[in-house]
Amino acid sequence: MVKCPYCKVSISTRTEVCPLCHKNLIEAGVSKDEIKKTPLDFPKRGKLPALSGTLFDKVYLLCALAVVLVAIAVELIVLEKIFISWLLLSIIGYFYIFLRITIRKANFFPQKVLVQAILLSVVAISTRRIIPNPEVIFESVLPFIYLVSMIIIGIFFLIHYKKPSRYLLNLITIALLGFLPFLIDFALDIHAHPLSIATASLGAIILIMLFIFYAKIIISELKRSFHV
Ligand SMILES: [Zn+2]
What we know:
With about 230 residues, the chain is mainly α. It contains eight helices and two strands; from the N terminus they run ββαααααααα.
């Protein structure tokens, strides 16, 4: 316990300034050792994590950058165009986001499924230049990814229907994504594939059902998410 030489108040916590008269205690003749003996009134702050990410982030991203740059350089020299590097980049990016967000960050299972679906579609689209018949991506691969994700989140939703606000927006997002292959087919003037029609239809059914039964919760969730 330290006593302030000016106002004689007893100070029970560690400070160099008297909490009552605001005089500097060390200048007033109190020794530093005496101050150090008084207990802290707050817990010591540990080392703060660096903003630039963990060692894993640094090593992974640096290696990824090196690999992709070498691949691009080799392709530009040998083929004079970028061919496989896009795929390489998307796969490396995929695993990074998979490890950092899908496994560690996303709180709820439907969120993980949604992140996975978006990542997988980016990887699928990046194979466009390599595979012999790229229309299969929009005809079958994307519809398949969204259809499966919709069914998984849908089942999850049915099991946890008592807490709809947690999963509603994920379900709406995946249902909207379900329209994407159909719209791309339409935009590219490809004859709409049965799988993309099925996916879009399921998306439409999910959206209609959600808005019939959960309109109020959806609107309040949207307001909460976008802070309106
Ligand atoms: Zn004082």
